[in-house]
Specification:
Blueprint (H helix, E strand, L loop, with lengths): L2 H25 L4 H16 L10 H23 L4 H7 L3 H12 L5 H19 L8 H22 L6 H23 L3 H6 L3 H28 L2 H4 L5 H14 L5 H25 L2
Amino acid sequence: MRLHHAALLLALMVAWGVNFPIAKLGLQELPPLLMTTLRFALTAILLMPFARWPRGRALQIAGLSFTFGVVHMNLLFAGMRHIDGGAAAIAVQVQVPFAALIAALFYNDPLGWRRALGMTLAIAGLFVVAGAPRLEGQLLPFLLVVLSAIIWAITNIQAKHLRDVSATTITAYVALFGVPQMLATSLLLEDGQIEALSRLTLQAILAVLYLSVVVTILGYAVWYRMVQRYPINTVMPFTLLIPIIGVVASAVALDEPLTWHTAIGGAATIVGVAIVIIRAAPRRTP
């Protein structure tokens, strides 16, 4: 890998890791479903001028917008509102072993004992993190974040059938189709939206801008470019930095304590995810 591409990936991992405390700051002022709606609305506004109509694929993308936007993102933010950003950064890593499990079930990709061990270790690490004193009484929000990660793994099955559609078009129309669905969900399940919007501060505005522009638009543009240019086993290991950066950034920005539950459980989860990535990579390399 060229040095400037490695530096670009490192910068992306930092941006995605810092995403967790920044999202927490936004959730201090905005209801989670409303924040998701604003994020996708801004993404659609900025990307639609560069997207093409997905001829023959609109229904599939609409389905993806429901699974990824309404279910995954709303579960993620609803859970993150009540737990530490560092714990959320570790919990979402369960998406990797569950993606491997789905590949085994739907695409006949054998798990093997090493990847099964990695999955077990990753999930065991989550149990350790969930036992942290700061998460006492917050098991349900933690499980919502874990469930959101599992749903994200499921969305990969849908995205797998959209390989001939550009990333810009997929991202733009997932956002566009998702906005009315998420707005309806927010109006149905939340209250105080008008009040929250009327007292928006710069903190919440910058949080939504960051989630839309940096995390979604720029982030996935870089990610898809690197995945297309290099073998997946060269690119995927970079994602192991995300939970580490997320925990450190949350400790610095939100003054979250780094407990032994987070350290040991996080380490176990990261090692388990690393085993799954390393063992899965050769089969997915072009």
